[in-house]
Write a structure and sequence with these properties.
Length: about 220
């Protein structure tokens, strides 16, 4: 503002103008930075996964994590996070007594971050982060499954879970529900909402629907 301290300095700054070449250089630099971030942090985990099954990394918020683990409270058995990202859900699961707690993740940078967070929390060697494709992992011995994935993969994932999980298993989905399943319970609102599905009830519903369609 006129008369304010620093008026002369800001006036000189305001006189600086980017020409066409300057704008082009700025755009190129910005694009290069974005590409470098993708190439270093995200692309390594996607190279071997078909495009339709790729899920970009998006960290879970504190309330999302708390809601998801609340729906697993009091349960026991092997707990896995499919696409575990930076590992925060696995660490919280272990903290709440869900053991063993395992995360499956393809991105090596996120695996390094997960292991660092485990070490920092004092859980090094107590939780596991494995570089495995979630579509190729056998889930037949898992009793608690956490799924914070995009809606585009949910139908195919539902088929895999139905085929492999035991009746006693519970699946907790964050951000997006399974479109063809009826949840046993739900918690939270909006982006923080999570849904729990008990596999025994899901299978019964699928069987009833199949009988209804055949009659």
């Amino acid at each position: 503002e006129p008369g304010e301290p620093g008026e002369e300095v800001w006036g000189r700054v305001g006189e600086v103008r980017l020409g066409g070449r300057g704008l082009l250089e700025l755009a190129v630099a910005t694009g290069a930075a974005a590409w470098a971030t993708w190439a270093l942090l995200l692309a390594p985990g996607f190279r071997r996964v078909p495009l339709r099954l790729q899920v970009p990394y998006q960290p879970s918020g504190p309330q999302q994590v708390a809601n998801a683990l609340s729906l697993l409270q009091g349960r026991a058995g092997k707990t896995v996070d499919l696409g575990s990202g930076d590992g925060r859900l696995v660490l919280e699961a272990y903290k709440r007594g869900l053991r063993p707690a395992i995360g499956f993740e393809l991105n090596p940078w996120l695996l390094c971050l997960s292991n660092y967070r485990a070490w920092k929390a004092g859980y090094h060697g107590k939780v596991s982060f494995l570089k495995k494709d979630l579509w190729k992992v056998n889930l037949s011995d898992c009793h608690n499954v956490i799924v914070f994935l995009a809606p585009s993969v949910k139908p195919l994932l539902a088929t895999k879970l139905l085929a492999e999980l035991p009746d006693e298993a519970r699946v907790v989905a964050g951000r997006f529900p399974f479109p063809s399943w009826t949840p046993t319970s739900t918690l939270g609102q909006g982006l923080e909402q999570v849904w729990a599905y008990d596999m025994k009830e899901v299978r019964r519903a699928v069987q009833r629907e199949a009988l209804s369609d055949s009659s």
